[in-house]
Write a structure and sequence with these properties.
six-stranded mixed β-sheet, 11 helices, single chain, Rossmann fold
């Protein structure tokens, strides 16, 4: 039996996790030196409310001990494991998982444990994980799923922005000067997760949200294969605590980009990435593959 695993960075809704029987590894959310865990003692709504009041959050990674114990438990049950962690360009979890794999396969040489760098975060990571689970439901072998995931990861696109640069400054991704000037001029960065390294890159900047959407249209075509955005696919939009902007983004993809309304999904940006972006954040996920079809129903 195959077990699909991801972590809290994927922002998968609980009903989706249950539907596809996905295992979620915990990532600690830390404030005032106290650890909080999603689904136990913190929600994204609570975190964003506290952030607006000035509380600063940071995140850790999945602990090696937890990962080792969970993977070993599954290998003892003869499970074949596929783990899709938060991007290696964002978190150290991927490297930790590789070291755990070496240790466990020395102990269980017949075991099957695959660590796939999602090169993504939030619902980008979530979409890749759902695809893995759907392939598993279709009866694909673990090797077939892993091979398909390589192409899916390669095509996964992330574009996002924030409404308040203060949080990126706190996280060390922006200088204080840039933060002050950007705030005064209403400048919004257009950020992108590089598909080769899985790192966050700034690729453009605009003044105002409508200008952001117009630039998203330009970049969606530019970074898609064949130089043209494919509207026949699922597009997922995540927001922290910025629902009205998420709805505007959805409307733009329907009216200007030609995506069917049922194929544009709005979801919440969870604690792991939201701790660094703040509540005013919009992330957009789609595929660069011109043949990609709509597939996600959460």
């Amino acid at each position: 039996m195959i077990k699909i695993i991801t972590d809290d960075g994927a922002d998968l809704p609980l009903e989706t996790v249950k539907k596809y029987n996905i295992e979620i590894l915990p990532i600690a959310i830390i404030a005032n030196e106290k650890e909080h865990f999603i689904g136990k003692n913190i929600t994204s709504d609570e975190m964003y409310s506290n952030m607006r009041k000035g509380l600063v959050y940071r995140t850790s990674q999945v602990t090696r001990t937890y990962m080792l114990e969970k993977f070993e438990e599954l290998l003892k049950e003869d499970k074949e494991i596929i783990y899709l962690p938060l991007s290696s360009g964002i978190s150290g979890t991927y490297e930790t998982a590789l070291s755990v794999k070496v240790e466990l396969l020395n102990k269980y040489p017949e075991g099957k444990l695959f660590i796939i760098d999602s090169k993504s975060a939030t619902m980008g990571q979530g979409m890749v994980t759902i695809r893995a689970a759907m392939l598993n439901e279709d009866g694909k072998s673990v090797e077939e799923i892993v091979k398909s995931l390589e192409e899916i990861v390669e095509n996964q696109i992330h574009l996002f922005t924030v409404g308040d640069l203060e949080y990126l400054y706190r996280g060390g991704r922006l200088s204080k000067t840039s933060q002050i000037i950007g705030g005064l001029l209403n400048i919004m960065p257009i950020l992108y997760v590089d598909r080769e390294r899985g790192k966050i890159e700034s690729i453009d900047k605009v003044r105002g949200f409508m200008a952001f959407l117009k630039k998203v249209s330009v970049w969606a075509n530019k970074i898609s294969k064949d130089g043209k955005f494919n509207p026949n696919q699922t597009v997922v939009i995540c927001h922290g605590d910025w629902e009205e902007v998420a709805l505007k983004t959805k409307r733009y993809f329907i009216e200007e980009m030609g995506v069917e309304a049922e194929n544009v999904i709005i979801s919440k940006l969870g604690c792991v990435i939201g701790a660094h972006t703040g509540p005013e954040a919009i992330t957009i996920f789609f595929s660069a593959d011109p043949k990609e079809k709509a597939y996600i129903r959460m």
